[in-house]
Amino acid sequence: MAKRRRISPDTKARVALAAARGERTVNEIAAQFEVHPTQVSQWKRQLLDGASDLFIDGRSARGTPSDGEADTAQLFEQIGRLQMELAWLKKKVGGLGD
After folding, report:
1. Cα(12)–Cα(47) distance, rounded to whole angstroms?
2. Residues 7, 13, 19, 24: what is their CA dihedral angle, to the nearest 10 degrees?
3. Would the pTM of this model clear 0.85, i.e. be above it?
4. Which of 1, 47, 75, 96 has the fewest CB atoms within 10 Å, i.e. is most exposed?
């Protein structure tokens, strides 16, 4: 049984870009890189389908706090409220627990 050849992501990208350019046929590209023509077409499709993800605007993600930051802020807010309640109760009762 023949061992499967591992192809690096860099090579896959070069093959897909060559196919996307359209300067040569899929068969010519497959022969040059020694891969199957079907694989060339699949990598080209993956490249074109995923290309729009490269241009996602990251500013909207930076403007909102992450889940961890939101939880931390909520906990600090609750601690502040509890500290205020404790101080108020100590005043009302007459300073117990100082």
Report:
1. 9
2. -80
3. no
4. 1
Whole-number Cα distances in Å, 13 to 25, 42, 48, 63: 16, 11, 11, 33
Q: Is 4 helix (H, G, I), strand (E, B) or coil?
A: coil
Residues 6+ apart with CB under 8 A from 16: 40, 43, 44, 46, 47
The predicted pLDDT at position 66 comes to 64
- pLDDT value at residue 93: 86
The residues near 90 (Cβ < 8 Å, ≥ 6 apart) are 96, 97, 98
Encoding tokens for residue 74? Answer: 């909520």
Q: How far apart are CA 45 and CA 41, in angstroms?
A: 6
Q: Give the Å distances, CA to CA, from 51 to 60, 69, 79.
A: 19, 31, 46
